[in-house]
């Protein structure tokens, strides 16, 4: 398995016209044809600057929902909360260079990973599935902040650039383990997923259409002729809680 580089991933270019239209939604990116991590971080911070939009707030919501006292001890579970840092999302998205299409996050928490993905690339729609109701509600709150930033630069009659769809759902109960619409990109921070939950992720991935790309944190999907999945590369990237291996995989 190779170390992940931009050269190791099949790419499609993003047209300057589309990128220019997308970046005008946020002042820090206006008239920018390249999206550097620094500019993206500034834009992300300008949207989600409130305490209730922070990673720490989502982490505390998760602990409270699981019956753990804020700041206290206690064992982790498959529902434990960790997050890919926005800066890491920007770097990964630059490597895979996906254009348009549909992005999913299984275990989407507060939605911040989806927002970072859509800030760095112009997906047409984004879907987040989260089991804990409080985290789902926090994602909806963060969506309102995203929409507010859009309204600061567009008139109210302008349709949203990206359709966000957050669902309070159990991924183990997705009918036939089939996502509709099919993902262009599927993200899963699976560090604390137990074997049963990750088996569901495996089935969902195997049911995706050929060409779907997967970003898997810590746990790697099974590959081979039976699964129809291959690994393109891997690399260590920073998470909210430390460093982890991110696997870039594809349905073939």
Short summary of the structure?
This protein has 252 residues and is of the alpha/beta class.
What this model shows, in words?
The protein is α/β, with parallel strands linked by helices and 252 residues long. It has one domain: Rossmann fold (3-Layer(aba) Sandwich), CATH 3.40.50.150. 33% of the residues lie in helices and 18% in strands. The chain has 7 helices and 7 strands; from the N terminus they run ααααβαβαββαβββ. A 7-stranded mixed sheet has the order 3-2-1-4-5-7-6. Strand 4, helix 7 (195-206) and strand 5 (213-217) form a beta-alpha-beta unit. Helix 3 runs antiparallel to helix 6. The radius of gyration is 17 Å and the shape is globular. Mean pLDDT is 81; it is low at 6-25, 27-33 and 69-75.
Q: Which sheet architecture does the biggest sheet show? A: 7 strands, mixed
Q: Quick check: average pLDDT? A: 81
Beta strand count: 7
The secondary-structure class comes to alpha/beta
Supply the CATH architecture.
3-Layer(aba) Sandwich
> What count of helical segments does DSSP give?
7
CATH class: Alpha Beta
CATH topology: Rossmann fold
Terminal-residue CA separation: 16 Å
What's the helical proportion of residues?
Answer: 25-40%
Total number of distinct structural domains: 1
Radius of gyration: 17 Å
């Amino acid at each position: 398995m190779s170390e992940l580089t931009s050269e190791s991933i099949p790419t499609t270019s993003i047209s300057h016209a589309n990128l220019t239209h997308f970046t005008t939604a946020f002042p820090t990116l206006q008239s920018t044809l390249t999206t550097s991590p620094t500019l993206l971080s500034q834009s992300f911070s300008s949207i989600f600057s409130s305490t209730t939009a922070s990673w720490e707030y989502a982490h505390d919501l998760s602990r409270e929902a699981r019956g753990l006292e804020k700041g206290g001890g206690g064992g982790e579970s498959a529902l434990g909360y960790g997050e890919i840092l926005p800066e890491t999302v920007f770097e990964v998205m630059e490597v895979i260079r996906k254009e348009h299409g549909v992005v999913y996050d299984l275990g989407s928490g507060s939605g911040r990973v989806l927002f970072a993905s859509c800030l760095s690339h112009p997906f047409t729609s984004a879907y987040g599935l989260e089991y804990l109701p409080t985290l789902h509600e926090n994602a909806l709150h963060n969506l309102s902040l995203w929409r507010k930033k859009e309204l600061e630069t567009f008139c109210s009659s302008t349709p949203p650039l990206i359709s966000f769809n957050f669902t309070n759902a159990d991924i183990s109960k997705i009918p036939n383990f089939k996502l509709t619409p099919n993902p262009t990109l599927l993200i899963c921070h699976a560090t604390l997923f137990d074997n049963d939950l990750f088996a569901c992720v495996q089935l969902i991935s195997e049911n995706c259409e050929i060409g779907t790309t997967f970003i898997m944190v810590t746990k790697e999907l099974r590959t081979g002729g039976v699964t129809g999945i291959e690994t393109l590369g891997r690399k260590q990237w920073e998470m909210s809680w430390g460093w982890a291996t991110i696997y870039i995989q594809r349905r073939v």
